[in-house]
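hi support,

uploading two proteins for the ticket. first:
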Amino acid sequence: MMIHYRFLLEELRYGGKQVITFVICVALSIATLTALNSFRRDVHGSLIDEARELQGGDIIIHAHQPISDKLQLAVDNLAQQNRIQQQKTFEFYTVVLSEIKDSSLLSSIKAVESAYPFFGTITLTSGLQLGEALEPGTVVVAQEVLDRLDLAIGDSLIIGDVAFTIADVVAFESMRPVSFLSFGPRIFISMTDLDQLGLLGRGSRVEHELLLQLSEPDDAEDITKILSASA
């Protein structure tokens, strides 16, 4: 903000009280602008943090078909340059069966890697991290799965061609807020078990995701351009 100092000197000579008031107003204006800018930065930072909590990554690549080789190569190259870390997830709906009860349930299956998610919170009733509880041959399920199928931790749950052991229960998942569009309770499986299910043949409706974590947050625009050019 530019202030005409000769004007201030004249005003100091002939109207001291008025100029003091003027200077105070100028100071308050500067303080207010500074506070507003700080508030804007805080809000912007908060929105970014909340977006990460909901998405699980800095950049999300989402598709209803397998990620193209060209795009995957671009992601791999960025990872080799240590500009990003990447994780894959696969999500689809299917009917799961209780091995000990004559019952079934439409559920949302999500196959994840051991470090999932980069951001956000998945709280398990055991207190373990998802990657600690979710081993090959096991599943981590929403409480609704146990309630509706009358099952407990340690029981078996059949998904596709595989019988899994229920290892833990999801108490909270920040990446899946309450929604009327959620058609079934969540079941997490290990990525290593995905191919054994026999459910992902041609024509299967699967949501493919690549979650990316940036090494440098300021790199987001450049990385987005690189990936867009390869999409």
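and the second one:
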Amino acid sequence: MTRNRLLIGLAAALACLALAATCSAGEAKGSADEKGFVTLFNGKDLTGWKTTGNWFAEKDGVLAIKPRPGEKGWQRYDAYLRAEKQYGDFVLDLEFKLPKGGNSGVFVRVKDPKNPVATGIEVQINDTHGKKKVGAHDCGGIIGTVGPTKNMAKPAGEWNRMV
């Protein structure tokens, strides 16, 4: 079994559906470490990625999304970012940060990149810190199936880690 690590960090970009990603910028993109893990983001640009929107690499090694000009609401952030290469077995290790009320998600095992919502599995990322009872649409939940066993979401503006 080949294991690949997708080390992706997610950071909100000032709105509800803001999604951003970062990896260990010091590692060379695509090169496996001694355990066979691969870092996908080179810390500089979108090499190795495909996007449907205004994604860009910030100078501090973070991938971020800008809102589309002239649009309002969450739809202005409605864009996907995905690795060009497909992976079989992998370990997903990511960090994310959201603003108050932020809402996003991470899709895995997407069969049709043109329709990830219908053909993939979405792990919910949203601002649910302090919520007593959590379900499939709360942070860490698998949309349409099961919620997290415990609410581990940190307050808005703080980095969270999901493995």
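thanks. also noticed: The beta strands are 4-11, 21-22, 49-51, 55-57, 62-65, 81-83, 90-97, 103-108, 121-126, 160-162.
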